[in-house]
Amino acid sequence: MSTTHTDDSPDVDPRRWLALVVIAVAQLMVVLDASIVNIALPSAQHALGISDANRQWVVTAYALAFGGLLLLGGRVADFIGRKRAFIIGLVGFGVASAVGGFAQTQGELFGARALQGAFAALMAPAALSLITVTFSEPKERAKAFGVYGGISGGGAALGLILGGVLTEYASWRWTLLVNTPIAIGTAVAAAALVRESRAAGKAKYDFPGVVTSTLGLVALVYGFTKANESGWSATSTISLLSAAVVLLAAFVVIERNTAEPLLPPRVFTERIRAGAFLVSLLLGLALFGMFLFLVYYMQGTLHYSAVKSGLAFLPFSVGIVFGAGVASGLLPRIGPRPLMVGGTAMAAIGMALFTQISVNGNYLSTVLPAEIVMSLGMGLAFVALSSTALVGVDEHDAGVASALVNTTQQVGGSLGTALLNTIAATATATYVSAHAGQHAEGLVHGYTVAFSWGLGALVLASVLSLVLVTKQRPEGETEGEETSFERAEELVLV
Q1: Residue extents of the structural domains in the chain
Q2: Positive or negative CA dihedral for 49, 54, 56, 61?
Q3: Going by C-beta distance under 8 Å and a sequence separation of 6 or more, which residues neighbour residue 402?
Q4: What class does CATH assign to 10-199?
């Protein structure tokens, strides 16, 4: 989509590297927010009296809003101005973080997390677009995306450590409050250093699509939560799940009949690309679920402090970064299929190892090997499926197709967290009722049952990768041409 600069400055922005620092700080904040809150979750649950059934909303409220609104956020940023959207996103994210940090009830915390996700959905695509329009020279653009990618990959590890330190030595509230001064300061810097750009043409938004898709996903997650509280056959559970089906079906109908759909159905018509989206959804389901239950296992069963549990997750972050680096080198030579099949299979083996945890388990013998194997596999698969999202896609759909990788991961993660939390809680309750006095064993049993379902999702992802991702390169591309995989480098990091 073409862009027009709103000022009269030259095409080469003399302050572009300072602008990149501002954009990188914003991206770091978004990435940090996911992992930093995970480590603080047990403390927040205890402080606010959040039930086991509802604890997943701390994760899913953010992921649902972020994933559900990401496509709209990118389109809004294009038309109102990417700099303006970036600054609005930063300020809103900072305010929402403050609301969450000062929350006195679980409802306030869940609402603040949803607001964070909504503003992140505006900020993240604006940041990526700003890099694209700020750096027009290919080598400089590659360096800029390298910085952005490094922040995206390494930020999660920093969040695990920072979350542990803040939770243990200050309060879980500071894992949210720390965002506020950073966001406001970054917004002020962006106003001075970042150039405005916007898309040409008249703004058109698919609000019916946004409403039906978002409400449908919320109803689905809430239905899973109600199943935990009241049972799968309860009227409230059935009503919510039925409403979810109706709303999501309405979304499909709307997208097929509107002139400017939020999610163009044509994006899913290519088999390889559709396979990448399905695999991304399943990886998000498994990954989010693994983090949730492993945090509780480390802090509740192994009695790790918040700092120690954060450090215990570091090998996972390192493994993903290393696996992604290996995949980036192999992708142009061997194509996506071996990486996606091999990566998802490795991740499944790692998840299978997680099912072996026990009350008297040992980190070095059980958890660490599982982390290493699963993270390496995830790193291999993420790079391959991200690039594959652009195989055969039309130029004007490239942004949507790439953003869908992030969207499907977030949506899969939110749905998976809610579903696996319900499965784990049900398994724990059943175990404890059958084995009186063995509450600790019941909790771990619930975690292993959830890991088993996550294992099933990863096995399915591996099968889909094998069956659907059949071509090594898109048709019509030769060794001398720029491939879809290479063009994807600018977009896969949304």
Answers
A1: 10-199, 207-261, 264-473+485-494
A2: negative
A3: 386, 389, 390, 488, 491, 492, 494
A4: mainly alpha
> Around Cβ 373, how many Cβ atoms within 10 Å?
20
Q: How far is CA 268 from CA 278, 404, 481, in A?
A: 10, 10, 25
Work out the average pLDDT over 110-135. Answer: 88
CA distance 410 to 90: 20
Please give the average per-residue pLDDT across 288-311, as a whole number. 94
What pairs with residue 199 in β-bridges?
3
Q: Which residues pair with 198 in a beta bridge?
A: 4
| CB-CB contact of 214 with 69 (8 Å) | yes
Q: What is the pTM of this model?
A: 0.84
Place domain 264-473+485-494 in its CATH homologous superfamily: MFS general substrate transporter like domains (1.20.1250.20)
State the Cα–Cα distance between residues 417 and 281, nearest whole angstrom.
12
Res. 150: pLDDT tops 50: yes
- What is the DSSP track for 5-25? ESS-S-SS-TTHHHHHHHHHH
The sign one gets for the Cα dihedral 290, 292, 295, 299 is negative
Handedness of CA 101, 288, 310, 26 (dihedral sign): negative
Q: Which two tokens stand for residue 95?
A: 């305010």
For residues 336 and 332, give the distance between their C-alpha atoms in angstroms, rounded to a whole number.
8
Pairing state of beta strands 3-5 and 197-199?
A: antiparallel
Residue linked to tokens 């509450």: 439
395: its two tokens:
């130029």
**Alpha carbon of 338 to those of 39, 72, 287, 466, 489: distances in Å?**
34, 33, 21, 8, 19
Tokens of 15: 């302050």
What is the rounded average pLDDT for all residues in the chain? 86
Residue 94 CB partners (closer than 8 Å, separation 6+): 179, 180, 181, 182, 183, 184, 187
- Do the domains at 10-199 and 264-473+485-494 have one common CATH topology? yes
